[in-house]
Amino acid sequence: MSTPGGDPPGPVVEGLPPSRPAALDAVAALLVLGGLFGIAQLLIGDFVITGRLPAKGPIVAVAALLYLASALLGIAIRTGRGWLAAVNLAGLFAIVYFAAFGQPVATLLGVAHAVAAVLLLRMRRWFVLIASWRASRVTGRPAVAVSRAERQARGRPAKSGRTRPSRRR
Predict the structure, then answer these.
(1) Is the pTM of this model over 0.90?
(2) Which residue in 47, 73, 162, 169 is deepest, having the highest Cβ count within 10 Å?
(3) Would you say 58 and 19 are in contact if contact means Cβ atoms under 8 Å apart?
(4) What is the average pLDDT across 107-124?
């Protein structure tokens, strides 16, 4: 259930979940395949994303944990969960892959993860809508997810951290 390209999802309609952007499926596939690729490299030759052979000690364990997290987050974001963790992990992988800039595979994966992080940031609204839809199924109330810009457009003040007006003069 995807919308073409990275189009923003439409409003939630009578009990149906918001349509998933197609770009989200691409990001999820990158995270899953990138994680599996990394785990396979660790199993075959102790290659870690920085390109140094062989990886030793705790570096292998940390890399395996990050690759596993990548694969699991790729699955989770398709269901509307794990947005913040996926953005952070994609950004982390982009930075670390760029450290091995001279290697074509690492450079390609670095660029792909950087693009994935940007796409995830742009798709934040879908994650808010899906969370609202999920909550509406539990509470029985209609799903409403309104952004700050939409509240301002309707003439309502945007929510801020302050509850009282400032007394400064």
Answers:
(1) no
(2) 73
(3) no
(4) 93
